[in-house]
Design a protein that fits this description.
The structure is a homodimer. By secondary structure, chain A is α+β, with helices and mostly antiparallel strands. Chain A contains 2 helices and 6 strands, in the order E-H-E-E-E-E-H-E. In chain A, strands 2-3-4-5-1-6 form a 6-stranded antiparallel β-sheet, with helices on one face.
């Protein structure tokens, strides 16, 4: 279960890129995420993406989804009305060090979403169970 | 996108409880997670769970899954050979403060898995976009 979890909040995402509707299209976001996982050398086991409706008829809704990986998961949620998205990439190192794959996946998604500001944290998860204190 | 993300690594999970095979049954884990989300007042939009095979014929494999919520997501991965699991509960506060719902969901899952030790971190995600620095 040891592995890298990248937790990022993306602000001021670009809406004038070729894929500027990534924030409002579950189909495009699903395609991007699945392709980016595979390009990074990670194994997609399944996924679920959902398209929200807009707050009114003039607004497009956000999207939300997760990809279940053999190496753990990717989760992404968008808020088009604020040009924001949250991104989680967690990969465990069960059979190999997947940290570089996590970083590659993260960078691909950041490049696609084009944020103007990012709040990101990297957490190294998991200890050797023998190093944890077992409560009676 | 503001909201609470509970990140927990669970060690020494109990295998002698009534649901001691939660670590090795995707079906049971899926049922637990979906029910716990709904009991906590969260809205399940979809999910995907996967059953791993064991390393050899004498071992049961772990399970992994995510639940896509209207409020964000739940992700869980198990390592039965180490009696461990990782757990992520992230709920945003788009229309209401869902922190207590996140805590209730987290507690239900911890109670079901019965860990002897927990490494947990609570991250408050999201800022007002106006408070972030937009890079030109």
């Amino acid at each position: 279960m040891k592995g890298l979890h990248i937790i990022a909040d993306l602000y001021h995402c670009s809406r004038d890129k070729a894929d500027g509707d990534l924030l409002t299209s579950a189909a495009k976001l699903r395609s991007l995420c699945a392709g980016a996982c595979e390009a990074a050398g990670l194994t997609v086991l399944g996924e679920h993406f959902y398209q929200f409706g807009g707050a009114d008829a003039t607004l497009k809704g956000g999207t939300t989804g997760t990809v279940v990986l053999a190496e753990s998961h990717l989760a992404i949620h968008t808020w088009p009305e604020r040009d924001c998205a949250t991104l989680d990439v967690y990969v465990c190192n069960y059979t190999a060090d997947n940290s570089q794959r996590a970083e590659a996946l993260y960078q691909t998604l950041v490049d696609a979403l084009g944020p103007g500001a990012i709040q990101v944290e990297r957490i190294w998860r998991g200890k050797d169970p023998a190093m944890t204190k077992k409560v009676a």
